[in-house]
Amino acid sequence: TDAPIFARTNGYVKSWHVDIGARVRKGQLLAEIETPEVDQQLQQARADLQTAQANLRQAEITADRWEALWKTNSVSKQETDVAVSAFHAMKATVDSNTSNVRRLEELQGFQKIYAPFDGVITARNTDIGALINSGASTPTQELFHLAAINILRVFVAVPQLYAQAVRPGATAFLTLDEFPGKTFSGTIARNSNSIDPASRTLLVEVDVDNRSGTLLPGAYVSVHLKLPQSVSSVTLPANTLLFRSEGLRVGVVRNGRAQLVPVTIGRDYGNSVEVVTGLQPTDPVIINPSDSLIDGTAVRVNPSPAQATAK
After folding, report:
1. How many other β-carbons are positioned within 10 Å of the β-carbon of residue 138?
2. Residue 64, helix vs strand vs coil
3. CA–CA gap between residue 234 and residue 261 (Å, rounded)
4. Which run of H or E residues covers position 102?
């Protein structure tokens, strides 16, 4: 869980109580903001409310008197209705002023910024005396950044070929360069159920227990998934591929002659590629073949350096 912490009121930073790396609990005080303008607005709103309440009492007394006089036919119905309407209008004014006082009290309550959940402060972007402007018309600045790292969500793009191998609840293993020889266990929580048309991959989320705090949020890791036995592939150097009009081909040696075999590429690693169909792990492959290579060309296989040394 990751969240930026913004201010909800205007003023100046009075004090801050946590810095980067600090572990905080839900409800812990992070910073305090001085809000002189809001304080003055609240005092004015309370004074306006008191004035409206006094006017309401006067309007209520007047309305009651006019209604009593109208029952004795001492005043007209029109004058009585005017007094009663003035009473109801003043009551609405009191309600409006009361709401305004509550609004400003809530803004004043935002003087203190608290942590919304347990976590670690990963960024502090403010200091004492900094101007805080929470207006919608101006860009607001993030004060803190808070991350809950007990459980980390690791996102990995799985090639479309292996999308069916990803099932929620399955186990995945993580490795990091800074921890050679060590693996971290995780659980596949969910996937996007959609193939990205740009990369032809499935976005998968792996949840990892990180209560020890060993793993850091934002880090890059390698995710290892167990594939079903039906998915088999071989990896070849990229210079073994032949691009022909009829499709992608790889030259193999069978019975002393070259044979161009159609293949299907899985994942491209740059200097090497994954071949998912068309080849067997035991097929001898021609490296860096000539563009003029055709089926049936006689091929002489050179012995490997180890074989030559043995002879």
Report:
1. 8
2. helix
3. 14
4. helix 77-109
Identity (one letter) of the amino acid at 8? Answer: R
Residue pair 113/30 in contact by the 8 Å Cβ criterion:
yes
What is the model's pTM? 0.55
Residues 6+ apart with CB under 8 A from 158: 165, 166, 191, 201, 202, 203, 204, 225
Name the region of 169 (left: φ>0; alpha: ψ -120 to 50; beta: rest): left
Q: Which residues have C-beta within 8 Å of that of residue 111, sequence separation ≥ 6?
A: 9, 11, 14, 32, 33, 34, 35
CA 85 – CA 69 distance, rounded (Å): 16
Q: What is the pLDDT of residues 22-69, one digit of tens each?
A: 999 999 999 998 888 888 889 999 999 999 999 999 999 999 988 888
Look-up: residue for tokens 């009121």? 9
Residues 75-111: pLDDT tens digits? 888 888 898 999 999 999 999 999 999 988 888 888 8
How many CA atoms does the CB half-sphere of 211 hold within 13 Å? 1
